[in-house]
């Protein structure tokens, strides 16, 4: 059963919310089968899947493609789609962008920063919104932890309040001190989802590539539950050795014109 905004609000302080990113159909299928209630199709796809140096290179067309793939793999899961850089610069532009992501299969959209007018306009037009404060990669000049001094901590707290007041039903807190995330979580009525923000948030999100150990670098606040890059390397080497020794395809059952080609 697909969860909606009210379902997530009802979980605040009662049942932690698990969120994973996904960008492809088979990964989304596995996440849904595991019972994860929400998938984020994040603009991190640009860096972890597409080889870009920044999420700022991701376009609406990229997001539509990956949201569609994830929706086909997870037809019964709440899917959040990221609005890419510069696609939410004003309320009208943001609404047109959001409607494209919803049409592609997103249940709700996420945007970065304290964009009060944009969030209100989206919500007033029936678009469910997830906010994002703390470290905001689309505009960040570095990926160091933010909110570490009193002035910056107050700014992030006020941004979180503004995001809630504007109508968002959930907010992502990225790479901020655990104590600050705890204060924000206790202050807000809406759920907080942490990524590098500690255990006091109402839920946690991980980039699926980080969780899989896919790649050659992972943020210090992530965890690798497997090391799929090592598996890919082994499979590629084993396959190459079998082809060069003529062992493959002689070591598989011969096909008779049926099945996959």
How would you explain this protein's 3D organization?
With 261 residues, this protein is α/β, with parallel strands linked by helices. It has a single domain, classed as Alpha-Beta Barrel (TIM Barrel), CATH 3.20.20. It has 10 helices and 8 strands. An 8-stranded parallel β-barrel has the order 1-2-3-4-5-6-7-8, surrounded by 7 helices. It is globular. The two termini are 36 Å apart. The mean pLDDT is 96.
Summarize the structure.
With 261 residues, this protein is an alpha/beta fold. The chain is 41% helix and 14% strand. It is globular and about 65 Å long.
Write down how many β-strands occur, each being a DSSP E stretch of 2 or more residues.
Answer: 8
What would CATH call the architecture? Alpha-Beta Barrel
Which geometry do the CA atoms define?
globular
Task: Give the rounded overall mean pLDDT.
Answer: 96
CATH H-level homologous superfamily name:
Phosphoenolpyruvate-binding domains
Span between N and C termini?
36 Å
Question: What layout of secondary structure does this protein have?
Answer:
Elements: H1 5-11, E1 17-21, H2 25-33, E2 38-41, H3 45-48, H4 60-73, E3 78-82, H5 91-104, E4 108-110, H6 116-124, E5 129-134, H7 150-166, E6 170-174, H8 178-187, E7 192-195, E8 203-206, H9 208-212, H10 228-244
Parallel strand pairs: 1-2, 1-8, 2-3, 3-4, 4-5, 5-6, 6-7, 7-8
